[in-house]
Each structure stands twice: as structure tokens, then as C-alpha cells.
């Protein structure tokens, strides 16, 4: 007789307006397994799990849990049935302690607060059992990102769950923290729990999973035993074609310094100190990576370099010219290309066409403008050339760019910036939100730019991206550059320690690198 699945979803459908997030998804999860949901951003993984844990209601289909059909109206209902989810974006109140966060949302929080000694004791017991190192009296605002994630995981375990759903949990972790988290998943399964691991990282999924379900465009493509597949086959399932797993990086031949940054300091958009005393050089013919856990000043560094954020002190020199304090348009006119972290905010205008977005910085310059009038023919020819060369999938140059996938939007931004033949290229999160196929293409383009003698500064939280194409890697922590390493995977532990703010004998590396 066949064993009933621990959790089964049958023909689940969910729309958000015209967008189909889940398109007839069926899936089975067995008790006591680590079941990974693998897919690109937008594949429908998180929406599916959000329906299971009561955050989103399905339009059609049914969820069967422990043999019963269920439909939860809230996460609290799901937790009462021993299902908990740790989301990619944490749901903690920063100005409360860990213990106070744990009793929020309970039926009688006042009673729990009055009995906080018992709450703290339970937190300590769970923390010790799973080696999570969570202090119940710590203020959440004082914790690192990795510590906050441990708090979130323990918060779910605090409620006695049987099914734990982890949504992209390694996105904000150092390599060492990632290793500990993957070990924790195995410990939880050994303790009788079932784990669903949502990810787009092939290596992590292969390391920890019993079974893997691949999703694409809101549908299940395939479910396989981890022991019967490999990363290459999974990548093929994710994008529908063969993908090269390794790029021929070669070695850059650095020339003169194109960009020099001296003792740069700036604040965040809300006025908090973000970058402190950063100095670096980027030379012609090299790609310099900037690694670090998200939130350590990388975003502000990129915005300050591109003129989008005022600086408090320091100098930015490009091609021997001081560009400190210039407006963004003047920075762009200085042979400076910018592929931004948030393409919707700083890279494209969603309501405009591909053609209009392709000339955003040059709409008033020849050949795109003649005597104050737009030259539609020149714009069309230029855009069609970019679409062809960069394999942008679109109807034509008049299609609104907002109708394109994230990968095709990113390819147009990359195409537009590189078409200006800049000397310096600033890239922030090159592959965020794009599929493996588009990722392969844009990374190859960066290598071509390096080999053509351009200087590239690549900021990324994806270590594999940095290892794949960088000539050297700087590490940021709390707004400072702590050190420089070669792109050598054998030194991953050292890189992870720097990302956590730990240096040899707690001594800072020299401030100026390059």
C-alpha cells in the first residue's frame, strides 16, 4: 500500500491581476525530508509556499496536510497546525527584544509577557538544542542580519512546528553561516521535522536536499531525487536549455587607474552613516568585485560614485578628473556607465518603450535629436541593433519595457550602457532577478568589456558571480573595506570571515587597496 504524503497540493492556481503566479501546481512532500523548491525569481516558489502557510489564498485547487484538506486564512492558523515559514524579508520588530518578538501574535501576549521567564527559558532550551546561539533578552535592532535570521528560525520552532518552510534563507548569510544553516536543516529532519528549502542556488540545493522540485513560470517542471541528478541537469530544467556552468574567465591585464576613490564617506538616504573612509582603485582591463552581506554600505557606495547620493568627504577621480559632487548627468557624460542595483528606480522607465529607454541619457544628442526634435529613425535603428546584439526578447522597439521579463529589461540596460563605450563601468547586482541564461550572457559581456580595456567595478552579494568573473575581490563590512582577496574558491572561509567583520588578530587591512 502506498504511503500518504505529509503534504500535497493539487492543481493550485493563483493570479495577481494579469499575472499568473501559480498555474495548476501539484506537488507532494514526504514527512522527514528536505524538499527543495528550485527556480529563478518569479518562478512561483514563494507564492506557492505563502498559500500553504496562510499568507495568500489560492484561487483554485486544494491543500492536503496530514491527510486532511486545509485552507488557512492566516499564518497564525497555519502555525496552530504546526506549519511555519521564515520569509526572505524578516518579520521582526527591531525595537523589541527577541523574547518580546516571540510572544507577539499569541492569543494572550500580556499573559506571556508576565511570564517572560518561562519564555526566555524555552528560547534558551531550543537555542541550545539546535546550536542557534540566540539570546532572548537581546534587542533585535542590535543583532546582525545572520543573528536575526537565527531569531526568525527559532521563533518558528518556538511554536512547535512540524513543517518548516525557508524562503531563500542563505541570501543574507556569509559562507560560514550558510554552512551552519544547511547543517541545521539536517538536524531538524533528524529531530522529526520536515523542511521545504526555497532557493535558486544549485550548489546549496544539491548539498542538502533529499528531493528537488524545479519550477518555471508558475508551473512544476519536474521533481527528482537529489541523488539522481546534478547541477547541470537542474539548470537545464530551470531555463529549458543547456547552460555553461563555468565561464572561461582568463586573466585581465591591468593598465592605468581609471577610477580612484580616496577616503570616501557618505550617509544613507535616511541620514545614517553608511560608507566610512573607503579608498580603492579600478584599473583598465580588470574587474574588481565588492563582496559583503547586504546592508554593509555597498548600495550607498554605488549611489555616491554615480552622483545619486551626496558625499560627506573624500574624492572621486575618473580618468584623472575630479568628479566629486557632480550631478548624475555630468557623471554619465564622463565616460562612466552605471548598471544599477534597482533598475526600476535608477535604470529604466517602465511606461516608456524600449527605444525611449535605449536613449535615456542621450535623447538630446545627435543622431537621436536633430534641431531639438527626436529622430525616430535613428532611435529605431539604434534600438534594433541593441536588441539583436544583446538578444533582448521583445516584439519590437516600440513595446513598453515594463512588458518584458526582468532578464530582458536587464539586458537592455546593459546594452544601453555599454553602447556608450565607457571607460569605467559600475555594476551593482548584475544578475539579480534574471534567469540563468541571461546571467550567463551578461557575465560574458562584462568579461568582453574587461578584455577591451575597460575598468569594471562589480558589487554583488552573489559570491559565485564574483568568483566567476572578477580579477580581485574587496570585502565591505560596516561601510569599510576590510581587505582584498583573489577570486580563489579555496579562500572562501577567509572571505566569509571578512564578510563577518573578522580580520587576522582583529587588525584592519590597509585602507587603500588597488
From TrEMBL:
Annotated compartments: Cell membrane
Q: Which InterPro entries match?
A: AAA+_ATPase, ABC_carbohydrate_import_ATPase, ABC_transporter-like_ATP-bd, ABC_transporter-like_CS, P-loop_NTPase
Q: Give the family, as the similarity comment puts it.
A: Belongs to the ABC transporter superfamily.
Q: Which GO terms describe its cellular component?
A: plasma membrane
Write down the membrane topology: Peripheral membrane protein
Asked whether the keyword ATP-binding is assigned, the reply is yes
Name under which the protein is recorded = ATPase component of uncharacterized ABC-type transporter
The alphabetical list of record keywords is:
ATP-binding, Cell membrane, Membrane, Nucleotide-binding, Repeat, Sugar transport, Translocase, Transport
Q: Which PANTHER family match?
A: CARBOHYDRATE TRANSPORT ATP-BINDING PROTEIN MG119-RELATED, GUANOSINE IMPORT ATP-BINDING PROTEIN NUPO
Amino acid at each position: 500500500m502506498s504511503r500518504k504524503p505529509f503534504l500535497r497540493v493539487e492543481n493550485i492556481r493563483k493570479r495577481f491581476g494579469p499575472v499568473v503566479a501559480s498555474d495548476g501546481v501539484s506537488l507532494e512532500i514526504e514527512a522527514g525530508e528536505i524538499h527543495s523548491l528550485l527556480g529563478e525569481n518569479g518562478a512561483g516558489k514563494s507564492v506557492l509556499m505563502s498559500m500553504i502557510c496562510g499568507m495568500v489564498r489560492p484561487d483554485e485547487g486544494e491543500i492536503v496536510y496530514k491527510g486532511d484538506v486545509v485552507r488557512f486564512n492566516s499564518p497564525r492558523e497555519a502555525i496552530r497546525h504546526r506549519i511555519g515559514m521564515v520569509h526572505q524579508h524578516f518579520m521582526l520588530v527591531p525595537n523589541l527584544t527577541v523574547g518580546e518578538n516571540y510572544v507577539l501574535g499569541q492569543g494572550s501576549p500580556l499573559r506571556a509577557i508576565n511570564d517572560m521567564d518561562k519564555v526566555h527559558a524555552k528560547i534558551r532550551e531550543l537555542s541550545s538544542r539546535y546550536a542557534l546561539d540566540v539570546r532572548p533578552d537581546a534587542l533585535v535592532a542590535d543583532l546582525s542580519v545572520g543573528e536575526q535570521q537565527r531569531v526568525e528560525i527559532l521563533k518558528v520552532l518556538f511554536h512547535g512546528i512540524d513543517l518548516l518552510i525557508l524562503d531563500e534563507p542563505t541570501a543574507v548569510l556569509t559562507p560560514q553561516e550558510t554552512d551552519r544553516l544547511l547543517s541545521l536543516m539536517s538536524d531538524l529532519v533528524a529531530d522529526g521535522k520536515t523542511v521545504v528549502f526555497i532557493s535558486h542556488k544549485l550548489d546549496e540545493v544539491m548539498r542538502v536536499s533529499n528531493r528537488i522540485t524545479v519550477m518555471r513560470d508558475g508551473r512544476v517542471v519536474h521533481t527528482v531525487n537529489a541523488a539522481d541528478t546534478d547541477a547541470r541537469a537542474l539548470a537545464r530544467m530551470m531555463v529549458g536549455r543547456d547552460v555553461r556552468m563555468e565561464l572561461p574567465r582568463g586573466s585581465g591585464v591591468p593598465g592605468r587607474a581609471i577610477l580612484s576613490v580616496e577616503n570616501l564617506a557618505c550617509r544613507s538616504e535616511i541620514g545614517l552613516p553608511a560608507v566610512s573612509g573607503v579608498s580603492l582603485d579600478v584599473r583598465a582591463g580588470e574587474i574588481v568585485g565588492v563582496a559583503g552581506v547586504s546592508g554593509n554600505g555597498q548600495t550607498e557606495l554605488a549611489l555616491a560614485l554615480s552622483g545619486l547620493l551626496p558625499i560627506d568627504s573624500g574624492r572621486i577621480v575618473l580618468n584623472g578628473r575630479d568628479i566629486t559632487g557632480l550631478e548624475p548627468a555630468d557623471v554619465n557624460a564622463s565616460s562612466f556607465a552605471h548598471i544599477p542595483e534597482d533598475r526600476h528606480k535608477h535604470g529604466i522607465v517602465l511606461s516608456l518603450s524600449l527605444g525611449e529607454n535605449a536613449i535615456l541619457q542621450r535623447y538630446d544628442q545627435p543622431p537621436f535629436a536633430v534641431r531639438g526634435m527626436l529622430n525616430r529613425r535613428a532611435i529605431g535603428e539604434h534600438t534594433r541593433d541593441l536588441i539583436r546584439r544583446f538578444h533582448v526578447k521583445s516584439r519590437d522597439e516600440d513595446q513598453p519595457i515594463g512588458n518584458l521579463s526582468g532578464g530582458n529589461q536587464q539586458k537592455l540596460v546593459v546594452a544601453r550602457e555599454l553602447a556608450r563605450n565607457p571607460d569605467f563601468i559600475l555594476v551593482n547586482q548584475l544578475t539579480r532577478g534574471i534567469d540563468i541564461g541571461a546571467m550567463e550572457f551578461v557575465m560574458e559581456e562584462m568579461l568582453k568589456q574587461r578584455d577591451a580595456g575597460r575598468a569594471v567595478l562589480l558589487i554583488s552579494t552573489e559570491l559565485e558571480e564574483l568568483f566567476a568573473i572578477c580579477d580581485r575581490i574587496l570585502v565591505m563590512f560596516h561601510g569599510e573595506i576590510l581587505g582584498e582577496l583573489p577570486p580563489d574558491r579555496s579562500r572562501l572561509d577567509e572571505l566569509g570571515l571578512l564578510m563577518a567583520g573578522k580580520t587576522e588578530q582583529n587588525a584592519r587591512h590597509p585602507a587603500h587597496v588597488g
